[in-house]
Specification:
The chain has ten helices and ten strands. The chain is α/β, with parallel strands linked by helices. The longest helix has 17 residues. The relative contact order is 0.18. The structure holds adenosine-5'-diphosphate and magnesium ion.
């Protein structure tokens, strides 16, 4: 771990100690030793700007999301994290700048190409976004019935495999309102995975979940991402709860990406702003506000 930086406060030292402990415990993952600048980026934001009326939400966001790794975007509530995710799948378009997925500029894709892109992206929304009129089985089967020509027998196999992966095989006949918040999120996750996406976007997996269920869901996200070699973005306003699962951290603040890199790079940064920011963020979930 970094030895070149002199921590100037005790709390900074404590954060460093915790990071070092996490690295030793194996919580800093596979891409940790390759410099970010040398990685292949699956998603690139280039000077992305987005206004709503007079409100400038994204004010020149620039960073890359390394392929096959888990990147956590953090920032206070209302900084544009969900807005950013919508740009990745072309549900929103920038006023200026660009967002590229696999080297293709999303704002320049045709409608057909956009639909194809979305089929390669699994999105897990904050509440699971299940159809309330369908049971769990039909919810998970929905994308397969919609976008593929698979037989019901093939669909059946895939749906039960996904449900088993998220620990919900016995709940296939239940309707969303019969499930707990944690189960709904896992069900949403099963549905997000059903098309075997190359990219997985997870918005606030910790919202509405207690710390134990957040930890279990985070672990599940890591296992599945690794199993299917997904490029995964996890969004959270709370650094502490889902940080350990991420290979890389990006900090959105004031409409810009103010810090980006592997956990090692970020926590080893000598930039006093990043240091102050991360110490504040690590000491209280709302420390960034
Ligand atoms: N479709 C929209 N129309 C107008 N304002 C929006 C829209 N979507 C988001 N915003 C505004 O953009 C800001 C950032 O929103 P959001 O990305 O949801 O924040 P968060 O970082 O909490 O996910 C908020 O102030 C929100 O009100
Ligand atoms: Mg949000």
């Amino acid at each position: 771990m970094p030895t070149e930086t002199k921590p100037s406060t005790t709390s900074r030292t404590r954060v460093r100690d915790r990071m070092e402990a996490a690295a030793i415990a194996g919580e800093v993952h596979h891409g940790a030793n390759i410099p970010t600048s040398r990685k292949r980026m699956a998603i690139e934001a280039i000077d992305l700007v987005k206004h709503f009326g007079k409100q400038k939400v994204l004010d020149g966001v620039t960073f890359g999301v390394p392929e096959g790794e888990i990147t956590m975007i953090m920032g206070p509530s209302g900084t544009g994290k969900s807005v950013f995710l919508r740009h990745v799948v072309g549900l929103m378009f920038p006023d200026s700048g660009d967002i590229k997925v696999d080297g293709h500029s999303v704002p320049h894709l045709s409608t057909e190409e956009l639909l194809e892109l979305r089929q390669n992206v699994g999105m897990l929304f904050q509440d699971g976004a299940l159809f309330s009129s369908m049971n769990l089985y039909d919810n998970v089967a929905f994308p397969l019935r919609q976008h593929t020509k698979k037989s019901e027998k093939e669909i059946n196999e895939i749906v039960y495999e996904r449900l088993r992966e998220v620990g919900l095989a016995g709940a296939d006949k239940k309707y969303p309102n019969e499930l707990s918040g944690g189960m709904r999120k896992r069900a949403g996750f099963a549905r997000a995975l059903v098309m075997q996406p190359k990219i997985l976007l997870v918005d606030e997996p910790d919202s509405g979940l207690d710390p134990v269920r957040t930890a279990l869901l985070s672990e599940l996200i890591r296992q599945i991402s690794e199993k299917y070699h997904c490029t995964t973005i996890i969004i959270s306003h709370d650094v502490n709860r889902v940080r350990s699962v991420a290979d890389n951290l990006a900090v959105l603040y004031g409409g810009k990406c103010v810090a980006f890199g592997s956990q090692k790079e970020i926590w080893g940064s000598k930039d006093p702003f990043i240091q102050q920011f991360l110490v504040g963020a690590a000491e209280g979930p709302l420390g960034m506000d």
